[in-house]
């Protein structure tokens, strides 16, 4: 079924007037904010494994026939999630280079291996990544919104 994106209703009070954005005055306090979303850490990720395996999640088994078929060390643009050390490296970069005042943590965390996940495994992934986040960014407020 096709869903129409057209609306024929009226806005009570009419359409609001469009106003130009006003830049804040110089010297006002600022915050540095980092958003982490849908990190999908795969504890079974293997570099050089097959990255296009035809399954919902790859980069775990086998070895790619050619170099371009193999999963990279840090991750791969394929049906793969990231290795745990890539997440750790990203946290180190955030801590040492970005130095955020707060972190917005959204989305889901576990790998896309939905056929083998359980409630306890989901919680284990969340606790592991949350502990790593806390250890990497001590004193930084984290606002999670996980589903």
Largest sheet: 3 strands, parallel
Q: Using the CA coordinates, give the radius of gyration.
A: 21 Å
- End-to-end Cα distance, whole Å, is 28 Å
* Helix-residue proportion: 10-25%
Number of helices: 2
Q: Order of helices and strands, N to C?
A: EHEHE
Widest β-sheet, arrangement of strands: 1-2-3
Task: Name the overall outline.
Answer: extended
Structural class: alpha/beta
Can you count the beta strands? 3
What fraction of the residues are assigned to beta strands by DSSP? 5-15%
Output mean pLDDT: 88
> Any low-confidence stretches, pLDDT <50, length ≥5?
none
Quick summary:
The chain has 147 residues and is α/β, with parallel strands linked by helices. The protein has helices at residues 84-98, 119-136, and strands at residues 33-37, 102-107, 141-146.
Characterise this structure.
With 147 residues, this protein is α/β, with parallel strands linked by helices. It contains 2 helices and 3 strands. It has a 3-stranded parallel sheet with strand order 1-2-3, with no helix packed on it. Helix 2 (119-136) links the parallel strand 2 (102-107) and strand 3 (141-146). Helix 1 (84-98) packs parallel to helix 2. The longest helix is centred in the last third of the chain and has 18 residues, at 119-136. The mean pLDDT is 88.
What key phrases describe this protein's structure?
147 residues, three-stranded parallel sheet, alpha/beta, extended
Task: Note the topology.
Blueprint: E1 33-37, H1 84-98, E2 102-107, H2 119-136, E3 141-146
Parallel strand pairs: 1-2, 2-3
Helix pairs in contact: 1-2
């Amino acid at each position: 079924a096709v869903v129409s994106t057209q609306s024929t209703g009226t806005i009570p009070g009419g359409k609001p007037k469009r106003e130009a954005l006003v830049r804040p005055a110089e010297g006002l306090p600022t915050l540095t904010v980092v958003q982490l979303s849908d990190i999908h850490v795969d504890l079974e990720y293997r570099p050089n494994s097959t990255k296009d395996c035809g399954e919902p999640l790859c980069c775990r088994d086998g070895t790619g026939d050619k170099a371009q078929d193999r999963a990279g060390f840090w991750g791969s643009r394929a049906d793969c999630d990231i290795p745990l050390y890539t997440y750790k490296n990203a946290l180190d970069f955030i801590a040492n280079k970005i130095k955020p005042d707060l972190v917005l943590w959204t989305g889901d965390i576990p790998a896309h291996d939905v056929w083998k996940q359980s409630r306890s495994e989901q919680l284990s992934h969340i606790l592991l990544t949350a502990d790593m986040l806390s250890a990497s960014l001590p004193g930084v407020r984290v606002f999670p919104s996980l589903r």
